[in-house]
Write a structure and sequence with these properties.
Blueprint lengths: L14 H7 L5 H12 L3 H13 L5 H14 L2 H13 L5 H13 L3 H6 L1 H7 L1 H14 L3 H12 L5 H14 L3 H9 L4 H4 L2 H13 L3 H11 L8 H8 L12 H16 L5 H14 L4 H13 L3 H8 L9 H14 L3 H14 L4 H13 L3 H15 L7 H13 L3 H14 L4 H14 L3 H14 L4 H13 L3 H14 L4 H13 L3 H13 L4 H21 L3 H13 L1
Helix pairs in contact: 2-3, 3-4, 4-5, 5-6, 6-8, 8-9, 9-10, 9-17, 10-11, 11-12, 11-17, 12-14, 14-15, 17-18, 18-19, 19-20, 19-21, 20-21, 21-22, 22-23, 23-24, 23-25, 24-25, 25-26, 26-27, 27-28, 27-29, 28-29, 29-30, 29-31, 30-31, 31-32, 31-33, 32-33, 33-34
Length: about 575
């Protein structure tokens, strides 16, 4: 199926206007706005563009900047104010069109939305066609609206979009049988597999008093422990009907258009384009928590973590996505170097959701990131207790607990967990590498360790850490010449890693390339190694690797290494 071109370069600043903007009267504010915009600091950009506009009120570039920054902030009231000012100049832009459209739709002015049809086409052809169909429905032109949805469904590459939104439109008008016929049909399955599409179908089936079918739809798409659909399952199990609330009217339908396109854009377009759609969806429907969470995720990806934290916090505790929002907020806190705050937030969440596996796992992972290993192990123990019988999906739990045990020198427990992770997923490269490298470092089961690492390399040949493990296994086995190639590749893949660079120096020393070895050790010191590694490297620079190994009680290995180096 040909995919529609959703990722058009919409909402970029018009270059000609920006050239005019360079002549803004308040050049300092303008330049600050440009810098903030390029850094995706939406709040600062909005403030600086607004400040520059005070002294240059007819400058269209500044108006455009205000619109774009405020859309990114989700403040469509300010965006629409600037859009009306830009419209008064006789100029048009995609962001202006969007801001005015959202203003009209918030007032349920569907005639105005239909009047913007031509301008909307410049924003995106699919957006324009879907908005038009829903606006026709909102304007009471039901026959025209259904024909418009059918025309979209009949366009190559757009079939699923047209069918999905026609189903929602029929449901909003009370035609649950017609909506179910579309969503149950094979042609509607692609887009219906979005989370909200599945929930819409379950709600529609419940309205048709087909409770078992509704449960089957949910069970086919969501795991049994998914906290976001637990309230729906509980209501159905209690014999209660689910309300249909995915798109109850035209305004909510158009909010769903923006969210649907955002989901389609995700991972395909630049985050800024997708953010525009999620912000529009949330502006039209403030309780659209999927759009709110997606906006926060996009802001976090842009590095705007304070704004992301604020956006996650907009999800109410009563909403099924509250757990996901809190976990996302904690991740953003980590990005802000607020690990202790993130853990406190997760501890409260874990206390309130004792039986939520995903919450307990998020707490364990957060504690491990902060190197609070005993507490992390306790959290992972609770996760295991909630698991029941583990399956392949659960290997990360044992891997994470195993790493925590290893950091506490509890090797027996660590090895048991790592081997359990491999039992669940035998070719998992991260586990193969970690366990293999750990065995190499201990000088235990070296042939098995080498086999594990070679399997990890086969799965992830471009991982510097795994290439380092392979080289280090050869090194520990005394196969020094074979260690050179993977060690050089590891250093190439991770050129500023102190440990890998130190290892490269050791390998060079072992094959008699002592000048190069000293050079690599000095490079490793420039990458700020931890105190223990720094001390060891400096000692190697003083007396050589053989001397350090002898001091560490590895005289036999030092002799073997020295003989190989001499032979080379």
């Amino acid at each position: 199926m040909r995919r529609p071109n959703l990722a058009r370069p919409a909402f970029a600043l018009i270059l000609a206007l920006m050239a005019q903007g360079a002549l803004a009267q308040d050049s300092g504010a303008y330049l600050a706005a440009r810098v903030a915009g390029s850094d995706r600091d939406h709040r600062a950009a909005a403030a600086w563009f607004s400040k520059a506009l005070i002294s240059d009120r007819q400058n269209p570039a500044l108006m455009e900047g205000v619109i774009i920054a405020n859309i990114a902030l989700g403040d469509f009231e300010k965006a629409a104010h600037a859009a009306r000012a830009l419209q008064a100049t006789g100029l048009k832009s995609q962001s202006m069109t969007l801001a005015l459209l959202v203003e009209s739709l918030k007032a349920d002015d569907y005639a105005a939305a239909l009047g913007a049809q031509q301008d909307l086409h410049a924003v995106g052809a699919l957006l324009e066609r879907l908005v038009t169909a829903w606006a026709q429905l909102g304007d009471g032109r039901v026959t025209e609206a259904l024909a418009s949805f059918d025309a979209i469904a009949g366009t190559e590459g757009l079939e699923a979009f047209g069918l999905y939104h026609k189903a929602l439109a029929l449901a909003s008008a009370g035609d649950m049988e017609g909506a179910d016929a579309i969503l149950a049909g094979k042609d509607g399955q692609g887009i219906a597999l979005l989370r909200r599409g599945v929930i819409a179908h379950a709600e529609i089936l419940s309205q048709l008093e087909r409770t078992e079918d509704a449960l089957a739809v949910l069970d086919g798409a969501f795991t049994a422990d998914d906290p976001t659909v637990a309230p729906l399952r509980a209501k159905l199990a209690a014999g209660e009907a689910l309300d249909y609330d995915i798109a109850r009217n035209a305004r909510e339908g158009i909010a769903e258009v923006f969210y649907t396109l955002a989901a389609a854009l995700s991972g395909e377009a630049e985050d800024g384009y997708t953010l525009v759609y999620t912000r529009a969806a949330a502006a039209l429907r403030p309780d659209h928590t999927e759009a709110i969470v997606m906006s926060a995720d996009l802001l976090a990806a842009q590095g705007q973590t304070p704004l992301a934290i604020e956006t996650y916090a907009a999800v109410p505790e009563s909403d099924p996505l509250y757990v996901a929002a809190v976990v996302g907020r904690s991740e953003a806190m980590f990005a802000e170097d607020r690990g202790a705050d993130a853990i406190e937030v997760l501890k409260v969440l874990a206390s309130d959701h004792q039986d939520a596996l995903s919450v307990q796992l998020a707490l364990g992972d957060a504690l491990r990131r902060e190197e609070r290993y005993p507490e992390a192990i306790t959290a992972y123990d609770k996760v295991e207790a909630l698991l029941g019988t583990p399956d392949r999906r659960h290997w990360p739990i044992f891997f994470s607990r195993g790493m925590s045990h290893e950091q506490l020198d509890q090797w027996d427990e660590a090895e048991a967990d790592l081997r359990q992770a491999l039992a669940l997923d035998p070719e998992q490269p991260h586990v193969l590498n970690y366990l293999g490298y750990s065995l190499v470092e201990q000088g235990r089961n070296l042939p098995e360790a080498l086999d594990m690492i070679e399997r990890a390399v086969a799965a992830r040949p471009d991982s510097g850490a795994i290439q380092d493990s392979l080289a280090w296994a050869f090194f520990k086995l005394g196969r020094f010449d074979e260690a050179v190639a993977p060690m050089e590749k590891a250093a190439e893949l991770e050129p500023e890693d102190a440990i890998l660079t130190d290892h490269l120096g050791d390998v060079y020393w072992a094959v008699g390339r002592k000048t190069e070895a000293r050079f690599q050790w000095r490079r490793a010191l420039s990458f700020e190694p931890d105190e223990a590694l720094e001390t060891r490297i400096k000692r190697k620079l003083e007396i050589g690797l053989d001397g350090v190994l002898s001091e560490e009680g590895q005289g036999a290995f030092a002799t073997k290494l020295a003989q190989n180096a001499h032979g080379n």
